[in-house]
Amino acid sequence: MNEPSKRKSSAKRHEAIDVSDFVYAATGARVRRLTMPDGTHWFPAVDVCKELGHTNSRQALSDHLPHEHREILETVSGAYGLSIPAGREWRRDLNVISLQGLILLVNACTKPACAPFKQWVAEVIETVQREGSYSLDKAEVQPAEPGAPIAYAMPEQVAEAIVRLEAHNLQLDEELASGQRESIALQKEMLTAQQDALAVQQSTLAVQQAMVRAMERIADRFDTLVLERPPTRGRLATPPTTESVLVDWRQRLSVTEDVWTVAVVIAPVLVEQGEMREPLKSIAARTGLSVHRVNECLRLLRKHACIRSRGGTEDGAPVYVLHQA
Predict the structure, then answer these.
(1) Which PROSITE patterns does this entry report, sorted A to Z (predicted)?
(2) What pLDDT is attached to residue 165?
(3) Which whole number is the average pLDDT over 223-250?
(4) pLDDT beyond 50 at 4
């Protein structure tokens, strides 16, 4: 590197090829750069290595770039009394490379996109070796005024590389735009489907609410009918129990002690088994009454609709069930 004093005293010369176009043709990308007061350019090494396909920028610099073509951002900016550019990516310890360093990295790159630029560099070297110098053709334009910078025509290889890169970028932009249009169309379809699903859900909810209201009206009507219906004589509101049966029988007739004794014996059997198939002798033995008296008690219970006969068993024993209206 030159000393700072020499850098500061160097006059900025007109560039024959715009550095942005030059770097674009070399790397295939618009790379960030810092242009110093003396016209020298420095580029973030990480940007250049990324565009050239180097996954490890430190290794790429170590393999292909001499130390005189790379520097630290703080050292470069400090040599001109400049402050570090604002932004998180412009760190003080950021590795930067000169334009010559960038060209060296491009020459070491194997990307096909770098081939036209490398071919032009080889042509420049061959021309210098053969003719002793290389100069750009002057552009077919007249200077605006005496002393104005001379315009030069961009080398054909560099111009072709830029055109090819721009065409490639336009194609990528079109593919991106096409993808975005397809994405928007898909999002619209999804939105329409969601709206249709929402409409179905709202319709289903309306049907469910109508069904709930109908069931509530049916339930209200049923409760009204139950409340208005007169009670049926003799019908028990709940499944009969021994106690409820005996209470019902007491209300039906004025029983004597022997009739009540028979009632207490047969009521549990009728409630639990639904019928009674005991011979009269068995009931007489359990009550301490005669068979004849047991028969008279059962006849009295049948007369007052407490029980009813339902035939007999194969052994001749009578079968009785509860009498329910």
Answers:
(1) BRO_N (PS51750)
(2) 63
(3) 69
(4) no
pLDDT digits (tens, 9 = 90+) for 273-293: 889 888 888 889 988 989 899
Please name the residues in contact with 273: beta carbons below 8 A apart, sequence gap of 6 or more: none
DSSP code of 115?
H
Asked if residue 96 lies in contact with residue 70, where contact means CB atoms within 8 angstroms, the answer is: yes
For 57-87, the DSSP string reads HHHHHHHH--GGGEEEHHHHHHHTTPPPPSS
H or E, element range at 252: helix 242-252
Residue 250 backbone phi and psi in degrees, to 5: -65, -35
The phi and psi torsions of 62 (rounded to 5 degrees) equal -65, -35
Residue corresponding to tokens 């005496």:
146
- State residue 322 phi and psi, 5-degree precision: -65, 140
Cβ-Cβ contacts under 8 Å for 280 (sequence gap 6 or more): 291, 294, 295, 298, 317, 318
- Name the residue with tokens 């570090």: 84
Q: Between vectors from CA 131 to CA 126 and to CA 137, what angle results, nearest 5°? A: 85
- Tell whether the model's pLDDT for residue 43 goes beyond 90: yes
Q: Which residue has the tokens 């942005």?
A: 20
31-63 as b/e: b if 16+ CB within 10 A: bbbbebebebbbbbbbbbbebbebeebeebbee
Answer whether 1's CB lies under 8 Å from 138's CB.
Answer: no
Q: What is the largest CA-CA distance in the chain?
A: 155
The residue behind tokens 């030059």 is 22
Q: Where are the alpha helices (DSSP H) in 38-146?
A: 45-52, 57-64, 73-79, 99-107, 115-131
